[in-house]
Design goal:
homodimer, about 575 residues, Nitrilase/N-carbamoyl-D-aminoacid amidohydrolase, Rossmann fold, 2 domains, 4-stranded mixed beta sheet, 19 helices
Chain lengths: ~575, ~575
């Protein structure tokens, strides 16, 4: 199982990645190598699926790859990949995506695409829009390899009852392997393993789960590829958030002769393909890899690794090498810089301190201390002369004067980014995004927002975790303790604290999580014990901040509702529950 | 037919709107009044449909409205509305939107909801995501009113063969009325009329088409409600882009006794409801309203009206009364200000001239001339002192120095907007958005972008049309001629012209339209005669500008591909065709 990290649209690079891992698998003596969902195109492709020239390019790249593998002496090794295909022979019709694209598998062997099959269950919720982009499949491929029958399916097909899973049982395959592009979510925990175990017992066959690693736009793929035997026992497991080639020897039952079912099972036709019927000669199996899972109570550590993965891939896949962060001395920018340091190295993190006349001494000191501890680039640019130049041209007070300072900072980091080529990171957290507690074109500028899906309370947890982790490793904690412990303040006017405009973050985050995370309405929230006036106020803040949220840079998704795509309502919406 | 303009989420306001028009219809002696699709909730509701409390609120508002109509003495008048309903009794299952919401009709009569029925054909392309948000219906309501059978369906159900349309023929109804929220598109022309005519002949019955007016977020609803008789002859037609109550008397055939079909027709069950079987006594019919369509060759005038409608409703539905535009003296900002003046009145348009040291004298003069001609508010704020303050703090050259000027302007108008409460309008056109020829957080700031779906060549056409229209009316042309005729320049460095970085706009727009409008790839574009090097360059520009486009403010959609939602690809995408 090749747990790899393709890039959307980089057909040449992704094909090279497959060829490299196929060679490594062949060298290790593998009889079969399986790659993740849509590895040839990268995943998710979104509306690129509707572009005819893109589908053609994917089909061509897949055929070319089959030839290339053979030309490189790898034609004997069956290679199963995911790619973007089209359903031929379908006329245009209502409800069918233009060009009939399909999320497919392809078996590459002996220099040819031997077999293709498309995903049957198309997810259409949360970040997924697969009904919009794909035509569903209707086959289950079963490949006889060395006298063993192996069935293949794609991602959601394993999660749903019926369809391919039912057809696997009917086909009496000895193993089911699924190709996945399954995004990380904080509360998923061991849910993939438990699913594979349940399915293995249901179908009486081993189950292999190949997942993608890396990140693409807002999605993080956590890897964690695994194999369970027919009893549901875990046999092999790859690490999280890393590329891996998981080499495993399995003892699988000899294929039985099954009379083909008269009709499709649950809409699924079983398609058989034989590579070889002869069992392999006995040999000494390799020791299976069983990467230990981190302590399940270390949920915050897992989130931290996910955020580092998301940032690293967004920077590199967009062709940047370095990042820029405006440091305020507060916890949000401190954590953002720390994640950047862990993702791209301190030499690629450029911090800017932009003090105003309202910045406290401790803010500057805390920011400087962070620069020193992490060894990142740091410079200080007082914004007062620029703010004064604006004040000479226009008369502002109140919120407008506060926001001006944030916008002068935004303009300054964007100018430096333009001049020097760094990707600017926005430092807003999810509590701010939810309530609109940020300045449009001010602190919200940038190309990526690493902590936008983290509640403020989670930001503190992450900072404490990272410092504790450093201590465990015998290193200096990267984040100055004072940035974690002090009361949060935007410092846009004298003596300002977040709690002047927002409730305490423990209370706020629990309310926001109930409203946004579980979509409870006013009535349910008050029944749950929240103060009715506070509920009204927070709902008004959240629903009024839709425009700001849309303008915010993308960031890594770690929850099932991340305020970007998952909860989009018209800006002109006048409803509050 | 009540061609009205509801607001998404404003259940109370929308209910009041229905009650007002129902009263007017009753006073005019109507036997039936029909409202547009989802009039109770507004349309489109997007992911609000997935919120249980919102669905409940819509259902309650609809029942309350039935009671209210009766309480106000309007219980006798059958009122057909569109609303958000839920399909009861469906457990959660894969592929089904959470809570089983439905895009439904409701017949309000005698103080009760007598009948509901849901949309069958759910569009899932372009701006529509209805598979994501709704469960499809399976009934066709046929209402016997004064001895005449009238069937009802929703929007897309009229456009598609089979399903409801087929069931109408089976039911032998005397008329089919559809409730619509059908967005404006530049090339739709008379396509709605032609569709109604074709369907009328197919089903052998009159067809009524009730459309929404106004705008919601990026969509504009053009009205143009109409009725054709069973021969397909146009009987009545409401105006475009305006609210209207279209009162029409029709001679309809007496209902025939049809034995109910044994099985559903095309998945559709016919549901009959009788209000009254007795024909009305003969009376003198009113003269039907037949609003003349504007000259079909005056396509540009229609676009102009659509843009004015879009801007007006976005401003008012978001709770603003006034707008702010940064005037450069160029054509884009001149047209934007003119549309704003027509939409919200010159007293609500605040123009800011922000000259830099590179601004030419004619730019300032042209901008001042526009302020004078239109009677809008105008003020001049030279940005040089602010740019110098930045230059004192950071060293910039080249593109970074150019972008700084745009960002100083952006910060200035946002500060004034914050201080004074105007909605800032971004002035970018579609050619700029497509190629990324704009500054993130500079000229792209604002809450709405009125010409973002207009190619530069269309911007010129619109400006010329508006000036000619003024002359036709004997008024002063609002746009200074020189703003239309001069060579376009961003004036961010001495002697800069758009043609330094971009090809001539006639050529550029035709290439962009072929690439974006029809999704042709490199090969097809070169075969179509475009220079291969230019194609490569423009494709690189377009695909590289995805991030800027996502950060751009929303704007009115006038084409089938408006660069906002219709063509979304991952930012990390590395593919160019």
């Amino acid at each position: 199982m090749a747990q790899v990290n393709p890039t959307v649209g980089d057909l040449e690079g992704n094909s090279r990645l497959v060829a490299d891992y196929a060679r490594r698998a062949a060298e290790a003596g593998a009889h079969l190598v399986v790659f993740p969902e849509m590895v040839i195109t990268g995943y998710p492709v979104e509306d690129l699926a509707l572009r005819n020239s893109f589908v053609s390019a994917s089909v061509k790249a897949t055929h070319d790859l089959a030839e290339r593998l053979a030309a490189e002496g790898l034609g004997d090794l069956p290679v199963m990949v995911g790619f973007l295909n089209r359903r031929e022979g379908l006329g245009a019709r209502f409800g069918q995506p233009a060009g009939a694209p399909q999320n497919s598998t392809a078996l590459l062997h002996n220099g040819r695409v031997q077999l293709t099959s498309a995903k049957y269950h198309l997810p259409n919720y949360g970040v997924f829009d697969e009904f919009r982009n794909f035509v569903q499949g209707d086959t289950l491929p079963v490949v006889r390899l060395h006298g063993v029958d192996i069935a293949f399916a794609i991602c959601e097909d394993l999660w749903q009852e019926g369809g391919p899973v039912k057809a696997v049982r009917e086909a009496q395959a000895g193993m089911l392997i699924t190709l996945n592009g399954s995004p990380y979510e904080r509360d998923k925990d061991n849910v993939r393993l438990e699913l594979c175990q349940r399915r293995a017992r249901e179908i009486g066959a081993a189950v292999g789960y190949v997942n993608m690693s890396g990140a693409e736009d807002e999605l993080i793929f956590e890897g964690d590829s695994l194999i369970v035997d027919a009893d549901g026992e875990l046999v092999a497991r790859a690490p999280q958030f890393e590329d891996a080639l998981l080499i495993t020897d399995l003892r699988l039952p000899e294929a039985v002769q099954v009379s083909p079912p008269a009709a499709p099972v649950d809409g699924i036709r079983i398609v058989r393909h034989t590579i070889s019927s002869r069992p392999v000669a006995p040999y000494e199996p390799v020791e299976p890899v069983l990467t230990p899972r981190p302590d399940p109570t270390d949920d915050i550590g897992e989130v931290y690794h996910a955020l580092v993965t998301g940032l690293r891939d967004y920077v590199t896949k967009n062709g940047f090498t370095s990042t820029m962060v405006a440091l305020s001395g507060g916890i949000d920018s401190a954590l953002t810089a720390t994640i950047a340091t862990d993702a791209v190295g301190p030499e690629n993190v450029h911090c800017v301190l932009l003090p105003s006349k309202y910045s406290s001494e401790h803010s500057v000191a805390d920011a400087e201390e962070l620069v020193k501890r992490q060894g990142v680039h740091g410079r200080t640019i007082p914004i007062e002369p620029i703010v004064e130049a604006f004040s000479g041209a226009i008369t502002l007070d109140g919120l407008a004067a506060e926001n001006l300072q944030a916008r002068v900072r935004g303009t300054t980091v964007m100018a430096l980014s333009n001049q020097e080529g760094h990707l600017v990171l926005a430092t807003g957290n999810k509590s701010e995004l939810a309530t609109g507690y940020s300045t449009l074109y001010g602190d919200s500028v940038g190309g990526y927002a690493p902590i936008k899906d983290c509640w403020k309370t989670v930001v503190w947890d992450l900072a404490r975790w990272r410092n504790a982790e450093a201590e465990r490793r015998g290193e200096v904690p990267p984040i100055p303790e004072h940035s974690i412990t002090k009361a949060p303040s935007a410092e846009l006017r004298p003596g300002q604290f977040d709690t002047d405009s927002l409730p305490d973050y423990r209370l706020l985050d629990s309310l926001l999580d109930a409203y946004i995370g579980t979509d409870k309405g006013y009535l349910e929230l008050t029944i749950a014990g929240f103060d009715p006036e506070l509920v009204k106020r927070v709902i008004r803040l959240v629903d009024g901040a839709e425009y700001k949220r849309r303008q915010y840079p993308p960031g890594p998704k770690i929850s099932s509702r991340n305020l970007s795509r998952d909860r989009r309502v018209p800006i002109t919406n006048r409803w509050t529950p």
